[in-house]
Amino acid sequence: MKRLETELKLRGASPHTIAAYRRYNQQLLDFSKKSSEQITKDDIKLFLGHLIADKEFSSRSVNLARSAIYFFYEQVLEKSLGSIKTPKIEKSLPTVLSKREIKQLINACNNRKSKMIIELLYSSGLRVSELVNLKVEDFEDKIGWVRGGKGKKDRAFILSERILADLRHFLKTKGIGEGHIFRNRKGGILSPRNIQKIVSTAAKKANIQKHVTPHKLRHSFATHLLENGTDIRVIQELLGHSNLNTTQIYTHISTEQIKKVENPLDKLSLDDNN
How high is the pLDDT of residue 196? Predict the structure, then answer.
């Protein structure tokens, strides 16, 4: 596992990826009750079959487990495994909140900090990991900067004037002149779990029936920008997507775009004389 972790670090993998790859490889060893040198292709198939049978594991999770195992045995141990097929990943569309639901969510916040966190997630399209790592130094007029985001890339994000005013007041009130913006009661950095709890609590209080997560606010940000006529490539830059195909999924979930399409039946004259 140490060799696996070292190889992943050398390739610039995120802590989240390293933890996932370690977890799945350790689960394989625990399941097979063998050492990594004794593991065979059949052992891996049995383990992946076990995950598929467990309804708690989605096809995406099974494919991630396969990738983690392949990386360890082929890239680290240099042991050829050949091909092992796994279920195709379901191509489900992401859930988004309507503009009305966004308003309900914001109005249901318990305090100023919670409200600002939800407004910032929605108005900027930030990932949770990017939000918790924001620092005072990352803001510049109406532009904010994500430093070392996904893929170790920096990118700019937009700031609403309302957020900017609230943010300045919040920092002044809390006496924060530098460093991380959102902190817990002990002065430490808020964890992603803290942010998730803030969002879910507000959603429950607002009586929103959808499963609301911070990432749903990112989806809503992108979808609402598209519906407002923002160019898809601009949205791609704001979200930090390296591939335009990733961003184009929002063209499939924009109900406003669909509503603008004229139905052919409405254009069809049913008068026999025409």
Answer: 94
